[in-house]
């Protein structure tokens, strides 16, 4: 239950950052789309053509927003998960992506498998990548 609460808190923080980022870049996006037609109305005949990098600024801003709010945090989580998987040892209590709790009793790094003891005389083999995290680990 503690892990679920931390996920909710992380999601709230992500939404807050996304909204702040959107509000920060909104004037750039809206301003560039509103200024062009106004300038076009004011010119008569062979007016100056808009173009260059200014036309791509809104698109570039959107790409930057997506990178910092979506791609970069996901890459960080993947790195942390990979590090956690590489430090797993026998005797660690873990939870799988399916929500099954168990204790590691065997590992096969060659085949990328982990054997979990989930009850007395009950051992199940999982892929190492299906381990969601350690249990009882402070976050």
Characterise the protein shown here.
With 139 residues, the chain is of the alpha+beta class. It folds into 2 domains: 85 residues, no CATH class; 42 residues. Helices cover 51% and strands 21% of the residues. It contains 2 helices and 5 strands, in the order ααβββββ. A 5-stranded antiparallel sheet has the order 4-3-2-1-5, covered by helices on one side. Helix 1 runs antiparallel to helix 2. The chain starts with a helix and ends in a 5-residue tail after the last strand. The model has no long low-confidence stretch (mean pLDDT 80).
Properties at a glance:
139 residues, 2 helices, elongated, alpha+beta, 5-stranded antiparallel sheet, 2 domains
What summary fits the major beta sheet? 5 strands, antiparallel
Strand order of the largest sheet: 4-3-2-1-5
Counting helices, strands and paired strands, the structural category is alpha+beta
How much helicity do the residues have?
40-55%
Mean pLDDT: 80
Q: What percent strand? A: 15-25%
The general outline is elongated
Distance between the termini: 13 Å
Q: What's the helix-strand series? A: HHEEEEE
Number of helices: 2
Count of separate structural domains: 2
Query: How many whole angstroms does the radius of gyration measure?
Result: 25 Å
